[in-house]
Amino acid sequence: MIEKKLLRQNVHRQIRELDDRPDRDRVIIHTLTELKAWREADTVAVTLALDLEIDTLPLIRLAWQAGKSVFVPKVTKQGLTFHEIHSFEDLEPGVMGILEPTTAATTRTIDVCIVPGRVFDRSGYRIGWGGGYYDRFLATYEGVTISLAYDVQLLDDIPVEPHDIPVEFIVTERETVLCSPSFS
Fold it and tell me: What is the pLDDT of residues 34-66, one digit of tens each?
């Protein structure tokens, strides 16, 4: 298996070569919103996208239009905290330039969590940025986990470590991968 850093670099190069990312993003977001888990969720957690990730701002707008409560993570020394936002004015640049919430952290249950990642396999394992924030959060999270990815981010084999927690679904522009059968 190739080391994680090299896998990230290879995938980043392939994403940069995609000349129709906005079209792919629309297909991915549409497919996600058709999933039963998303439709039935009252509360959703969504990370605001970094460069080379699927744009999640339209997804947040769709969630609000559907009457869902939207929570955005904030990186703290203790890990991730989630904060409900009611508009994009509830955000400011935070760690790594990612927009983060200015609202108070919540203890509400989150039904669906959109989990970011850089590289994925069909079992739901992911390579993120290397901070381990989501794996620590997912160790105790009981809701549905879904990742959004371009097809080029989905590989047959990636390095997996004992603390890695797989997601249940991966939605790409070409397919929806059911990684774990807990919710279909």
Answer: 999 999 999 999 999 888 999 999 999 999 999
Tokens of 63: 């969630």
CB 84 within 8 A of CB 108: yes
Nearest to 25 by CA among 56, 64, 51, 46: 56
pLDDT value of residue 183: 47
3-state secondary structure of 153: helix
Higher pLDDT: 111 or 133? It is 111
CA 125, 126, 130, 136 torsion-angle sign: negative
Query: What helix, strand, coil percent values describe the chain, rounded to 5?
Result: 30, 25, 45
Please state the φ and ψ torsions of residue 35, each to the nearest 5 degrees.
Answer: -70, 140
Rounded Cα distance, 59 and 54, in Å: 10
DSSP code, position 124: S
The number of CA neighbours under 13 Å toward the Cβ of 4 is 14
